[in-house]
Design goal:
Keywords: 4Fe-4S, Cobalamin, Cobalt, Cytoplasm, Iron, Iron-sulfur, Metal-binding, Oxidoreductase, Queuosine biosynthesis, tRNA processing. The protein is of the alpha+beta class. The chain has helices at residues 9-22, 36-47, 56-59, 67-70, 92-97, 113-132, 148-154, 201-205, 223-229, 236-242, 251-254, 281-285, 289-295, 305-318, 324-332, 339-351, and strands spanning 27-31, 76-83, 103-104, 137-140, 159-160, 166-167, 175-182, 211-213, 216-217, 245-247. Among the domains are: 9-89 and 104-182, no CATH class; 281-354, no CATH class. Strand 8 (211-213) and strand 9 (216-217) form a beta hairpin.
């Protein structure tokens, strides 16, 4: 639907940014829809097979990099971000270095961000509609083929670092992204410039060396991919480097100098649930499927599935210090109904000389 030509779009853009902040977004910007350079990068990445089993990355063709093909009529993309690390969360390195504990990526400790941000984006759209009348829009939060980091960069929210994560000069990288595709011809913001310089800490720290070069991530080696996206067996050579990371990985962000500026979350729903910010591996391994489903309700952890959850924890236990408690936990699942879980339990048993 066309919108009125009498609208002061510069003023509207200013108002939209104010509304977005009032709704809890930490930052907001407006981008155009030209992503030609990023489309070429994506096609090279796919051709190299770096997406692994994430077939959905290739399934949608060029709609991912061409917003107007994904949502006809799109002229601009309103990009928003929301900080996610809640105050009082235990030091991440302390958990990673305590091999009796399980490390869960900080973004996944609370409520699933998709629902939180999508609701806020819908409220933002409603406010815009009150101001301009009917207009075409669609809200996305990691829920469709969208090049969200490239769009956010073009909207001025940050630059894409050498680890391929978006970095904001004033807030580091611990934040979620969301988008509102719209047919409103809003003035676009200045794209963010890059500030990684010669730093390569993220490349050097990666436990599995998944960052194969600056701005080049081989997802097939990435612990986030291995523990969430990959179904079936984790490659044996990557199990020991995983350590106790059972859902996602934050190492490349933890060493990034820009995260000294990271902001704490203001959204109460992102607070850790069920003490998952530093749980014991043996306790998690004892969860029944019903416990897993009830304790991860409304959380991103559900994406791993119960079988994947146990598989990941079995690897963590294989890397844990040998103790009677660890051995007992491993032995208790030696005959697990899942062949995948049994395989990783067998690996863990061998690691402890069983």
């Amino acid at each position: 639907m066309s919108v009125s030509s009498s609208i002061d779009y510069a003023s509207l853009a200013t108002q939209i940014k104010q509304w977005a902040r009032e709704l809890g977004f930490a930052d907001v910007g407006v981008a155009g829809i030209d992503l030609a350079d990023d489309e070429a990068y994506l096609e090279r990445w796919l051709a190299e097979g770096h997406h692994g089993e994430m077939d959905y990355m290739a399934r949608h063709g060029r709609r991912r990099s061409r917003p107007a093909e994904l949502e006809p009529g799109t002229l601009r993309v309103i990009s928003v971000r929301m900080d996610y690390v809640p105050p009082g969360t235990p030091n991440a390195w302390d958990v990673i270095h305590d091999r009796e504990q399980a490390y869960i990526a900080r973004y996944a400790l609370g409520r699933d961000y998709h629902k939180v941000m999508r609701n806020r984006l819908q409220k933002l759209a409603a406010k815009i509609e009150e101001r301009v009348g009917d207009f075409r829009y669609r809200a996305y939060v990691d829920s469709a083929p969208v090049l969200e980091k490239a769009i956010a960069r073009n909207a001025g929210l940050g630059w894409i670092g050498k680890h391929t994560v978006l970095i904001n000069k004033r807030a580091g990288s611990y934040f979620f992204l969301g988008e509102l595709y719209t047919d409103l011809p809003l003035p676009v913001d200045e794209p963010a410039s890059a500030h990684c310089g010669s730093c390569r800490r993220c490349i050097d720290v990666c436990p599995t060396q998944a960052i194969v070069g600056p701005y080049r991530l081989d997802a097939r080696k990435c612990i986030s991919y291995l523990t969430i996206e990959l179904k079936g067996s984790i490659p044996v050579e990557l199990r020991e480097p995983m350590g106790n990371r059972v859902f996602g990985c934050d190492d490349c962000q933890l060493v990034c100098p820009w995260n000294k500026f990271a902001q704490e979350a203001t959204e109460p729903d992102f607070a850790p649930r069920h003490s998952l910010d530093g749980p014991k591996l043996v306790d998690l391994f004892a969860w029944s499927e019903q416990e897993f489903l009830s304790r991860t309700e409304g959380m991103a952890i559900r994406r791993a599935g119960y079988e994947g959850w146990l598989r990941n924890i079995a690897v963590g236990l294989g890397n844990a210090p040998t103790s009677d408690e660890v051995i007992a936990a491993i032995e208790a699942r030696a005959d697990d109904p899942s062949p995948v879980v049994r395989e990783h339990v067998a690996w863990a048993r061998e690691r402890h000389g069983r």
